[in-house]
Every structure is written in structure tokens, then in C-alpha cells.
Amino acid sequence: MSDRLVEVRDVSVVFHKKALFKKTRSVEAVKSVSFGIDRGETLGLVGESGSGKSTTGRAVLKLVPVASGDITVGGQNLTDLNGRALRKARRRMQMVFQDPYSSLDPSATVAASISEPLMVHDHVSARAARARALELIELVGLRASHADRYPYEFSGGQRQRIAIARAIALNPDFIVCDEAVSALDVSTQNQVINLLERLRTEFDLAYLFIAHDLAIVRHISHRVAVMYLGRIVESGPAERVYNEPAHPYTQALLSAIPNPSPHRRADRRIVLAGEVPDPARPPSGCPFRTRCAFAMDICAERMPEHTAINGGGEVACHLQTSGPELSGAPLGDLTAAAIRRA
């Protein structure tokens, strides 16, 4: 039997911005996104700022309205749930936000913040909730004596540990980590990543790990999905995506990972031309074509379909179906000149 916990099918999110004396402006922030996550698995979701990663994470938890598509968690379809039914379902899924200070109530003690979901969802007494909160505080690497302190008395890494303790208080199956370590220094990032990994193993958790730092994503993720302008352009096992990228955007992102090796060639750094297009007025055909060194005529005419990749996963790129006909192979040493001659 499949151990699939989270199933997202063709989910789209549209925001409508109203302005005085102007037409309502609609922006499709997420466009027909599909992916699945198994129990005990981490899916890394990467891309530039504004690519739709955080909106996708919020859509999966129904924190933003979904225009179309289906979201299933643990066999339960969340798409049409509202009110009490959605509130009941949310105990199975939680979120760890980027800024732990803004996600914690500054006027509440650590114990009170962690106890609140227990009293709201499990209807336990304040004493029982506090006892459980003390256990969770120690579970994430802090001391029980920290329970009556306030968020401002902790460092950023400690606050993120508190946020994680609150997220696992209800024993969820699925957690969305939205840039959960991007605001921390490098040594603290490693500590929090190791904590997340330990909790995933101990409680068989599934993570959607959203980040722009591909080095961190490689360390924690089993599979990776790459987003550009609201769409997933490539997905697959982490090692395949990192070692043999099949989409030019993925290749460019990977080239930006810092590498201190003195043997690394400087010309391997790929600098993308131009800016990310306006999501309200995306380019015709492939949305990445305006910044792609391999763009062909067909890229302006038709949106590429998802194609299976050797080694696992899919990619949406005409290089796999037209021009040089890579047919599922990685980009490898293809050059823009070679593509233009094809």
C-alpha cells in the first residue's frame, strides 16, 4: 500500500487587488501545482523570492483561499472544509514560520504559548497542558526552567525551537516549514535542521520544507521541487536534481550555491539575465524563456508539458521534447550555442 500522506493536485491560488478608480488586478500566485509527500518524508520546495513557495505552503494548510484543485492530507480532502471541520483537521498539520518572534505572542510566556493548542484542541486542564509543555520544551533542547520566560528573553534559534515545540504539541502528521532557518546564523541553522531531522525520525513526520538556500534543502530533503513564477518546473529525488538538473532554472540556482573549493571554475556560475516577470502579466509560452539562455521559438508559443526524467521526477522544459531532444537527460554540458545550432 502507498504511504502517501499529502496529495496536492492542480492547486491554484489567485489574489485580487482592488484599487480606487482602477480595475481589480488579479494575480495567479500559484498555477496548477501538484506534488505528494509520503509519511516520514521531506519535500524541499525551492525558488527565488516571489516564486510562490510560501503561498503554496499556506494553500496546503488552507491559510489562503484556493481557487481550484484538491488537497488531501491523511486521506481527508481539505478542499471544501470550513469552520469546525477545518479546525478539527488542522490538528494533523502545523506550520513553523520564518520569524519565530512574530509568530509567538510577546505577552505570553513560553509555557502559555505551547499550552494553548493543547487546551483548545484537546480540552485538557491548564495543569496537564503545562506539564506537557514542559516535556516539549525539553524535547526541543531547552530547559524546563525556561517555561515562564517571554519570547524577547531568547535568541533567534531558541525562539525557533519554541515554535517547533508548539507545532508538534498536538502530535501532527505533517508540518510546513516556511523558511524556518533562513533568519538564523549558520551554526544555529545546523542545530535546528538536526532537531527537525530527529523529530521527523522519532515521530514519523512529513515536512514541506520551503527555502531559498539550496545547500540546506539538499541536506534535509528526500525530494526537491523547484518553483518559478508560481509553477513547479522540475521535481525529483534530491540527489538527481542536484547532480543532474534537467531545467535551466534549476541549473542556474545550483550554480549560485557557494563553493569554497579553489578548484571550482568561475565560469560555472550562471547569472540569470533580467528580472522575474510580473506574475499579473506572465510571458507567453514558457514563463522562464525571457531569462533562459537556451530559449527557442517554441518556448514563446507553447507552455511545456511535464516530462519524465531519467533517474526519477519530472521537468517542464521544451529542451526535453524539442530542439536537441534531451528526452529526459540532464542538461550536462549543453551550451547556448549548441542549442541555437540545433
UniProtKB/TrEMBL annotation:
Single biological process term from Gene Ontology: peptide transport
Organism: Spongiactinospora rosea
Signal peptide positions on this chain: none
Name of the protein in its database record: Oligopeptide ABC transporter ATP-binding protein
Keywords of this entry: ATP-binding, Nucleotide-binding, Transport
Superkingdom of the organism of origin: Bacteria
InterPro entries, sorted: AAA+_ATPase, ABC_transp_ATP-bind, ABC_transporter-like_ATP-bd, ABC_transporter-like_CS, Oligopep_ABC_C, P-loop_NTPase
Domain ABC transporter: residue ranges: 8-254
Molecular functions per Gene Ontology: ATP binding; ATP hydrolysis activity
Family: Belongs to the ABC transporter superfamily.
